[in-house]
Design goal:
The protein is of the alpha/beta class. The chain is 40% helix and 14% strand. The strands form two sheets. It has a five-stranded parallel sheet with strand order 7-6-5-8-9, with helices on both faces. The chain has a four-stranded parallel sheet with strand order 2-1-3-4, with helices on both faces. Helix 2 links the parallel strand 1 and strand 2. The model has no long low-confidence stretch (mean pLDDT 91).
């Protein structure tokens, strides 16, 4: 197994090797032990300062990163674009360079523009972690999803994973596809034709438009929310119509001839993409995903910080 990441930043799952994924998972295994013990803090990043820079709203991802950073004893600076100089016309690079002038070692950034994190990494002297860039990628979400599947089954190779919902606007879907394929899983995407990118089949995934067939095929269903905030036009008649065609309820799961695992990256629109009795059922590992998110992000930050120390 690799002893260090092959990349200086975490921008995209596509840039990671399979050995990188295994290193992150094994490191996260150790940190999961840490966060489940009475004293949940380690001094691993005591001399590292991390800035969380979010240009889009976030609850789970931002809190998860901040908690991971504090569990590692890093110094944490939080930045939100609302009420900042960005609203006065300051550029992204100038904003970040001003923050780095305060001797920040690492930047965790969420931005609405695809490629923003790649652009930032090329223009600043600090490690960059992509916390989501537009509809491009969300690498730590894919890592925690795969880690949760591995924890549930003990393996990923050969498992059938269906990603169901708004594929067109989902950075989670793209990162999950890349990650699961690297780890040997079969991947299917399922959703309305209007929310399915035309290039999906070119990525080597199965494409399905019948949610019942997708559920019958898969071992794991990762259900995505409808991202109305990214939709400039109407892609389906109404949320009620979407729920009737693609919503997942307990009766559908009970009609399967096997028990599948339900996942969701959050936030959940209860009663739209899944019902509460599915989200809260024994088949759901949604809360496990939340817990594993902290361990995965601790692992990523720790491994990237090691490159800072070595440099």
């Amino acid at each position: 197994m690799a002893q260090a990441l092959s990349t200086p930043h975490l921008i995209s799952i596509k840039e990671l090797k399979t050995e990188d994924l295994e290193l992150i998972f094994s490191t996260a295994d150790n940190f999961k032990d840490v966060i489940n013990r009475p004293i949940k803090k380690v001094p691993s990043l005591r001399d590292i300062t991390i800035a969380n820079i979010f240009f889009e709203n976030s609850t789970r991802t931002r809190l998860s990163f901040e908690l991971a950073e504090k569990r590692l004893s890093a110094d944490v600076v939080n930045f939100s674009s609302s009420g900042s100089s960005v609203s006065k016309g300051e550029t992204l690079v100038d904003t970040v360079k001003n923050i780095l002038a305060m001797k920040v070692d690492m930047v965790v950034m969420r931005h609405s523009s695809p490629g923003a994190c790649q652009f930032l990494a090329a223009n600043i002297d600090a490690k960059v972690v992509n916390a989501g860039d537009g509809a491009h990628e969300h690498p730590t979400q894919a890592l925690l999803d795969a880690f949760s599947i591995r924890e549930k089954y003990g393996y990923i190779v050969g498992l059938k994973v269906a990603i169901i919902g708004d594929i067109l606007h989902s950075r989670v879907a793209m990162s999950n596809i890349f990650c699961l394929q690297k780890l040997g899983a079969e991947v299917m995407v399922c959703g309305p034709t209007t929310l399915m990118p035309r290039y999906m089949a070119e990525l080597g995934v199965k494409v399905e438009h019948d949610v019942r067939k997708a559920l019958a095929w898969c071992d794991v269903a990762n259900v995505l929310r409808i991202q109305l905030e990214r939709q400039q036009t109407k892609y389906f008649p109404s949320l009620r119509e979407y729920t009737l065609q693609f919503g997942i309820n307990k009766a559908m799961l009970e009609n399967l001839d096997k028990e599948i695992t339900i996942m969701h990256p959050g936030p959940i629109n209860r009663g739209v993409e899944i019902t509460s009795d599915v989200a809260d059922s024994g088949q759901s590992i949604i809360l496990n995903q939340v817990e594993n998110g902290v361990a995965i992000r601790m692992a990523v930050l720790y491994l990237l910080a090691d490159k800072i120390v070595r440099a």
